[in-house]
Amino acid sequence: MAEYKVKADKSKNFSLTNNEKLLGKLIYEHWYSLKANVELIDKLFKIEPKGFLGTTVEVKDSDKIYLSFTMSWNGNIVITSKLEKKVKHYFFKHKGILKDNYLVMDENDKELMVVRPSIKWSKFNYEFSISTSDTFEKFNNKEILLITIAHCANYYLMVFPTIFT
Question: Is the pLDDT of residue 163 over 60?
């Protein structure tokens, strides 16, 4: 099990860290945007909505799509990963009555991580603590998946805001 932090640098920039070590950045074009850039130590990605209504969001480099996600009818976010040879699906779900925590589950309903948002009133945005399972820690490319999860949490809070966090 590991603990990660996603902290706001500025109003629209977030840094992913583990034990104070910078793993990557999520940089939004502007407030309430689905478009963002991801800077990992060794790779750059773009996060962009796809299609006319932008209901699906893709994480890609210049040509290849690595991850995509969409909000399902029940309020969960379905994440499709092409990071490995086999396509996998993950599910971002709210937990609790006040939607104050989020879970990421795999296709077998196994919990991979818990995301706990906290509002930073001085910055007027959220930061996140992410606790991952031992299973998740064995994943390759986990940094891009963690940043995508942070983007999903921001997206979820944009669509379903709450003041109880």
Answer: no
